[in-house]
Amino acid sequence: xxxxxxxxxxxxxxxxxxxxxxxxxxxxxxxxxxxxxxxxxxxxxxxxxxxxxxxxxxxxxxxxxxxxxxxxxxxxxxxxxxxxxxxxxxxxxxxxxxxxxxxxxxxxxxxxxxxxxxxxxxxxxxxxxxxxxxxxxxxxxxxxxxxxxxxxxxxxxxxxxxxxxxxxxxxxxxxxxxxxxxxxxxxxxxxxxxxxxxxxxxxxxxxxxxxxxxxxxxxxxxxxxxxxxxxxxxxxxxxxxxxxxxxxxxxxxxxxxxxxxxxxxxxxxxxxxxxxxxxxxxxx
Length: 284
What we know:
Elements: H1 3-16, H2 29-50, E1 59-64, E2 67-74, H3 77-88, E3 95-98, E4 101-102, H4 116-135, E5 143-149, E6 152-159, H5 162-173, E7 180-187, H6 192-207, H7 212-225, E8 234-239, E9 242-249, H8 252-263, E10 270-272, E11 276-278
Parallel strand pairs: 2-3, 2-4, 6-7, 9-10, 9-11
Antiparallel strand pairs: 1-2, 5-6, 8-9
Helix pairs in contact: 2-4
């Protein structure tokens, strides 16, 4: 990865993990809470990875409505209580459901001395993919669980259509750092009334007002996270939901991808890429 892109990705990741304030312009309480939960999970994972007492252990973290659920094994009661205290000190977490098991032999099990950098990257990747799904106009309403291990992302949950499932997998696989995607999302059956209600809800989502600042932020982040684009060379400007892209890309395929990524961000009404220049004159 280009050094400057690494810096930008790290900066954007820090925002996702709560290391810098998350832009508070997301519309709708449910979306806002899901973004906050993704950020809180990333913050807790990061704190565990950086703590010398807890970094050797694999601890799964899930945040639901202010409650942090901890699962896994630790060596003793001190580690058990320490993990709970760290989670409880995370902004927005009001309760901890500590399901950690105490096993004096856990330190000797293969894989427990996991590389801290890898664990940090897994937490980062999980938060990144979750956020991309929440920003997208199609997948934002889907209940999808994301898990990352050494670059392999597993998606679980339910989608209302094969298109929604496929798009979720595509968004994950196109994320920088993802080497493989296990798309275990199942399709749920909807009756006629259910489909009508869903169509109406999607119509409402398509017309909901999102701030230009929010849209610009999410478009920029999505372009940076794409494995097939150098998002640093693309400038984004939004006015009334209309997004203008300018700068340079390597070829026409990258330009088309940039437009497609932008078009699918929630709240985007249109994309103007006339000033996005192609360095190479060869299409594709």
